[in-house]
Amino acid sequence: MSDTRTLDTFRAETRAWLEANCPPEMRQPMAEEDVCWGGRQFKFTSEAQRRWLEAMAGRGWTVPTWPREYGGGGLSADEAKVLAQEMRALNCRPPLYSFGIHMLGPALLKFGNEAQKREHLPRIARGEIRWCQGYSEPNAGSDLASLATRAEDRGDHYVVNGQKIWTSYADKSDWIFCLVRTDAAKKHTGISFLLFDMASPGVSTRPILLISGKSPFCETFFDNVQVPKSQLVGTPGGGWDVAKYLLMHERTMIGAIGDREARPLGRHAAQTLGCDAAGRLDEPSLRTRIAEFEVDEAAFRLTMERVADLAKLGQAHPAMASMLKYYGAELNKRRLELMASIGGHEALEWESERSRQGFVARAWLRSKGNSIEGGTSEVQLGVVAKRILELPGA
Ligand SMILES: Cc1cc2nc3c(=O)[nH]c(=O)nc-3n(C[C@H](O)[C@H](O)[C@H](O)COP(=O)(O)OP(=O)(O)OC[C@H]3O[C@@H](n4cnc5c(N)ncnc54)[C@H](O)[C@@H]3O)c2cc1C
Questions:
Q1: pLDDT value at position 1?
Q2: Per-residue CA distances from 158 to 120, 132, 181, 219, 384 (Å)
Q3: Is 11 buried (19+), middle (13-18) or exposed (0-12) by CB count in 10 A?
Q4: Which of 80, 225, 260, 297 could bridge 64 with an S-S bond, Cβ 3.0-4.6 Å?
Q5: Among 134, 302, 322, which Cα is nearest to 231's?
Q6: How far is the CA of 329 from the centre of ligand 1 (A)?
Q7: What pTM does this model have?
Q8: What is the pLDDT of residues 261-271, one digit of tens each?
């Protein structure tokens, strides 16, 4: 009872604080270009966006469950859930979105040494440094452990040579977390996990243009890049464990991707297409598809909460991240298909002002990548089959 009362108090205080501090502009539905990524190159799109980030970072609420000494809010998992619920109820946008928060941060909290945590975590929490992920290579995607980028031991530093591909936002990022091979004779145990500044001499990027007309990826090249040994996370040859742990968080993040869209689809459809005399969406077949989607989405959200509760008790199966990633990616693709159906021919427009420069068409195309990034759907289904359902391997 007393726990419930404490949480109720926390909920009331949180709601009051959000009401007072979240600017009205930050309670509008968010398009891709409204995402605050932080980092040295980031330009705020509005003063409200800057104020909202500062207010939330000041409370440690960009990373609510991280310890306070690393820039976090020190909240319990239950308090963080309340914060998320209250933010959703008020349509508050996430103040900061970054690979640092959802991917590197959790890995550093588990595997980083004290100096690395103190150097990097507070800057991630405040949105000062933007990170990119150097995992995939031209011949190492699903079979990531085949990676060939080498890091040679030169006493107090490594010299890194090789190439990464599909590095999201490499040209906009400040630092990279990168998998490198430190021992050519061993596959998994020859991999190490390095952090380095993208401004280091020898790092270069080349953007890859996509069908959506955007270029969120790069090829990333390393030509004799010197990396101090203090920037190795974990042990030499121990990078695969760090990489897998980080991937688990990445997959959970991708699974939750549809959660960023604050406005429910049904309401959006009703506003766009109108209602019949009974107040129902005036398109029976679309109404059914949306209803099915919203039921599945609600069930998925509850499943995510259940997995988070299990994780808190240390009882979540590590392969559950693959399950969430697979289903969340499929749901997000369905959401964008429905958005396109709701928008009709307007949703196919590419450059007009009324379509917000082809917002739906581009987002629909982008959603196709959800079932590839962070490990393909086929690979996730393989993990679920083998590790959760314990089916025999091929
Ligand atoms: C939007 C997006 C963002 C990305 N961002 C990054 C990033 O920031 N950093 C980064 O390092 N990488 C990034 N990637 C790359 C991504 O991790 C890889 O594309 C992914 O792991 C698949 O690797 P691949 O492209 O080499 O395909 P491949 O591994 O060559 O796979 C080709 C096909 O074979 C199938 N396949 C392969 N192995 C199996 C198997 N064992 N069982 C069943 N089917 C199999 C796959 O499912 C796929 O259909 C991103 C990709 C996308 C789409």
A1: 44
A2: 20, 20, 11, 21, 37
A3: middle
A4: 80
A5: 134
A6: 14
A7: 0.92
A8: 556 888 888 88
CA distance 38 to 32: 14
**Residue whose C-alpha is closest to residue 373's, from 173, 146, 168:** 168
Nearest to 121 by CA among 143, 137, 141, 106: 106
> How remote is the CA of residue 322 from the centroid of ligand 1, in Å?
14
Helices (H) and strands (E) counted in the chain, each on its own, are 12, 8
d(CA 56, CA 16): 14
Under DSSP, the state recorded for 70 is G
Share of the chain above pLDDT 90, in %: 74
| Cβ–Cβ under 8 Å, residues 57 and 126 | yes
Helix axes 284-312, 265-273, angle to 10 degrees: 160
Question: Candidates 194, 372, 381, 386: which one to mutate for ligand 1, based on the most atoms within 8 Å of Cβ?
Answer: 372
Which amino acid would we find at residue 308? A
Amino acid identity at 229: K
Give residues with Cβ within 8 angstroms of 250, minimum separation 6. 102, 103, 133, 374
Tell how strand 131-134 and strand 175-181 pair up: parallel
Q: Which residues are CB-neighbours of 263 under 8 A, at least 6 positions away?
A: 29, 91
Q: Which residues line the pocket of ligand 1, CB cutoff 6 A?
A: 132-136, 141-142, 164, 166-168, 369, 372-373, 375-376, 378-379, 382
Tell me how far apart the terminal alpha carbons of the chain are, to the nearest angstrom: 51
Nearest-angstrom CA–CA distance, 43 and 62: 18
Biggest CA–CA distance in the chain, Å, is 77
CA distance 331 to 345: 22
Q: How confident is the model over 120-134, as a mean pLDDT?
A: 98
213 DSSP assignment: S
Treating both helix axes as pointing N-terminal to C-terminal, what angle do 320-343 and 239-255 enclose, rounded to 10 degrees?
Answer: 30
Count of residues in the chain? 394
